[in-house]
Every structure is written in structure tokens, then in C-alpha cells.
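Example 3.2
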Amino acid sequence: MNKNILFCILFWYSLEKKLSTEKEQTVTDTLSRNIDTESISRLYKRYTTRPDFDLHSIEIQLFRIFEDEVHSERPVVLRYKPQIIYKLAKFLTGTMKRSASVGIAGETASGKSTITLDIIDTIKVFADEFNAGEVITRVNTDDYYYDRSEEVKKAGGMAEFAKHYDFDVPEALELDLMCGHIQALLSGQSVMLPKYDMSGTTIRYDNYTLAKPSKIIISEGLFTLTEKVRDAFDFKIYVDIDNEIQKERFFVRANERGLGDSAHSIYENASEKAKIYIRPCRSIADIVLSGEAQRSGYKIFLNKILSIVEQLHYSK
């Protein structure tokens, strides 16, 4: 019997035996959580009958990368759903032919925008090194806030308007439009994205930025994983953070923006609405990232995954 086939049979047999006897279901059990017996049987059959083992080997590499990270001293990844390993392997190997969409959500001051920009920067550096062209397109959730500029003028300014209008609910954004734009990009169409003025005017400029389809469509925001738009994403990521650290970050930012005494009421409202709309997204996320990790940690982790891309598509 071919040694590779024998290895796969033994691997999945030992895995199936472990799953049948394991009583404690922890987040990082070996490919066990949320995989039922039928799924294991299907995977066992797939890996013992097909001649091409590339996908299998990539899954093993990804599994090790994620497990090493989860168990590291200061992990970037706090938890992940084992099923996401298979999906990621399909995209990396090209088994899944279309573009991939990534949605990142978290509370205000959780670090989601910084993480997103670091992901984009790391991928662009990799793409430039291998002359891969434009491989990632950003769709900013904040740009889909409704234009309320006329109402702000009538109220006599943003401060008065904000007393009677809630920006911390999904209904404050045109998420249906955002979902449509992401689906269009995934289908290979270019779209014109809106641009929202965050300076306090609440003006939204429609058809402002040309976005072209690419290998990865990424979006981040408070409500990126809420019901209206979550299904547009192949990979759902939630950024988690300790409440005290998040609060400290919020007030530093509020001071920089000159919010004054209103910062306290804004924070309290944002926290209350987060309990309803944002924190529940953690449970549906495929990957939960730490909003407290060193920025370099995210890049190191991502570069480990990109090394697989190099191995698959750019090694001679």
C-alpha cells in the first residue's frame, strides 16, 4: 500500500478513535469541536480514496499554524472553528476558484480597523514581492452610514442631532447596499463605493470610490457580522478585547476627537447597544482574534499562512 495512503488511513483512524472517546469538548481539541460522526466519516472516505493529497497536506499545515498560535504565550487567535481550516485550504489551493470575502467585526476601540489595515498591508507586501498585482479590496462598513446631513442642519449641528439619533444600531447603516456591493465584487464586477464623512457632517458621497474585484474582499466595522450582511462573508472574524482596555482606548480616542463631557454618554450607549448587536456576533464567528495582541503578532501569524501560498503558487 502506498505510504501516503497508509498515513492518511492511520491519521483519520486515530482521529476518529479520539473523537469517540473524548468527553471534554474544548475549543482547541484536535479537529473535534463541531464536527459530527457523519462529517468525520465523509472526511475519512475523502482522504482514503482520492489520489491527490495536496489539499490534505495543506489542511494539516494550517491546523498546526492555528494550534501553535492558540497555545502561544500571547496568542493572536483566541479560538477558531475547525471547519474553517478546510474552507481556507480550498481557497489557498485554488480548489475554490472564486474570490474570498472576509468580514471583521468588534466593539468600538477593539482594534478591528488597525488589524484590518495591518492585514491589508501584509498581503500587499507579499503580493508586491511576487508581482501578484492587486489582490485585496477593502469595503469599509462605516461608509454605509445613511446621509443625515440635512437633519443635522435642521437640528443646528451634530451635537443636538445626536441627542435624538442613534448611530450605534445596524439600522443607521445601509447594510443591504453593502451586501450587494460585496456580492457584485465576488461575482467579478467593479462597483462604485460610497464615502462617509466621519468629521461630523454625516454627509455620504455615493458612487465615490471605484472598487475592482480581486482575490480577497475585506470589510470591517461594528456591524459587519450582523444579520443583514454576515452571509456575504466566507470568513467571519470577531475581535475580542477586555472591557477595561477597550474603555481606556475609547476615552483616549474621545479626547483626541474633542468629544468632551459627551464622551461618557456616547460610551455608555455604545456599550449597551454592543450587548445587543455586536457581542452576539462572537458566537457565529469562524475565528476570534485578540484585540490586545502586539501588532507584529498579526503580521507574523498571517505571514505563516502566506508562506503556504508561496509554497503552492510561487515556489519553483
